[in-house]
Each structure stands twice: as C-alpha cells, then as structure tokens.
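User: tokens in, sequence out, please.
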C-alpha cells in the first residue's frame, strides 16, 4: 500500500499536465472519487482538474508524507504536509485512501488539520450561491425567529449536487 500512496502523492506533485494525467490514469480507477473540505471530484477528469487547481493556488509547494502509512484491507490512512520543498509544511492533513482489487484508488477522503490562515477555508457550502449558505443567520437570530409567535418556520433548502 505504501507504493500506492507514494504514487498518489506523485500525482499531486506532478506539474506537467500530460505526465500528471498519465499518472492519474495509472493510479486512479475510472470512477474514482476524491472528497475533502474544499473539493469534491468524481472521475479522473475532475480529479486532474482538482489537482491542477491546488497547484495553481500553491505554486512551488509539494506534498510529502508526514508520518507512516497505516493500512489494512485495501485502505490506508496517512498524514501529509504541503509546503515549499525542503521547508516545514504550511498545511498538514490526512487522507484515507481505498483501493480496488487491482490496487487502483477508488476513494480518497481528505481532512485538513492545519492550514495557512486566509489561503484555505472550508465553508459550510460549496461556494457562492450554495443553497446551504443562503440566509445564514447567527444562532441568536435563529432562536429568536423560532420563538416568535405566529412565525412560520423556514426550511433550509436541500444542498445541490455541487455542495461539498
């Protein structure tokens, strides 16, 4: 499983689009899925676009393992760091990766432990216009609105497919 995780991180670090896509095709299953607090990608094309976007956001940064890979039953959990090569990472997170019987990644669930203030933010919704973010109010105003006599309750709209 260590080899799979090394190749997974190599996908994130490959800046040449053609070489990165070749790696993605070798490492990820056709219908693979990647989900973290900032992105959700289904399939190799979306995963490639997600990686390219991260590289644009953090030019010159590299992903590196920040500890051992713990694995069992075709799944692995590992901590990674993101920062300038050879320097202390500015972002630390951990991922859980699941592979199929051919050792291709089918699922990655990512979590952020620490992040650069202001550069990353995990909003409750998927971005501007997300139905989950419309009309967000403070806890106090929600409580007051619920307790107002004769006031109908508003339901929060269901999240769209875009929601992360």
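Assistant: Sequence out:
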């Amino acid at each position: 499983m260590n080899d799979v995780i090394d190749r997974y991180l190599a996908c994130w670090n490959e800046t040449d689009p053609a070489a990165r896509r070749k790696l993605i095709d070798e490492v990820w299953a056709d219908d693979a899925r990647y989900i973290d607090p900032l992105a959700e990608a289904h399939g190799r094309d979306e995963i490639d676009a997600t990686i390219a976007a991260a590289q644009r956001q953090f030019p010159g940064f590299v992903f590196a393992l920040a500890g051992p890979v713990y694995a069992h039953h075709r799944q692995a959990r590992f901590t990674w760091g993101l920062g300038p090569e050879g320097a202390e990472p500015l972002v630390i997170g951990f991922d859980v990766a699941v592979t199929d019987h051919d050792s291709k990644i089918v699922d990655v669930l990512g979590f952020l432990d620490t992040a650069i203030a202001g550069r990353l933010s995990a909003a409750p919704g998927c971005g501007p216009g997300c139905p989950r973010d419309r009309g967000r109010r403070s806890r106090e105003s929600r409580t007051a609105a619920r307790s107002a006599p004769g006031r109908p309750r508003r339901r929060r709209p269901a999240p769209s497919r875009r929601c992360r």
